[in-house]
Amino acid sequence: MQKLTLSAEPEVIHMAKQLAGQRGTSVSDLFSQFVRSMVEPRHASKTAHKTKMATGLVTWPRGKTPRRLIEEAMAERYLR
Questions:
Q1: What is the DSSP letter of 51?
Q2: What are the pLDDT digits (tens) for 29-77?
Q3: Rama region for 40: left / alpha / beta (φ>0; ψ in -120 to 50; rest)
Q4: Which of 33, 52, 55, 73 gives a 20 to 30 Å CA spacing to 26?
């Protein structure tokens, strides 16, 4: 396995360590899982299909982007 050095804000590093601890894994493994989930075609096609099926089912709150809603949901779930 090769070594990789990443730079991040201290707050992000703290969150990554907390999340890894909650999942019983290392930050390195957490990063690997994240990258795989973003790249593997099987994940992309399932996500695209579910998104297509859900089109029109949700109305976004004013002033919040879909990305911001996802960030808030992830923070609520994993950073309690």
A1: H
A2: 999 988 888 887 665 555 555 666 666 666 777 888 878 888 888 888 8
A3: beta
A4: 73
**Is residue 54 within a helix (H) or strand (E), and if so which, with residue range?**
helix 41-54
Which residue shows structure tokens 């399932």? 46
- Strand ranges in the chain using DSSP code E only, listed in sequence order: none
Q: Which amino acid is at 1?
A: M
pTM of the model: 0.49
Domain ranges of the chain: 10-78
* Residue whose token pair is 């050095």: 5
Instruction: Give the HSE-up count for residue 17: Cα atoms under 13 Å, Cβ half-sphere.
Output: 7
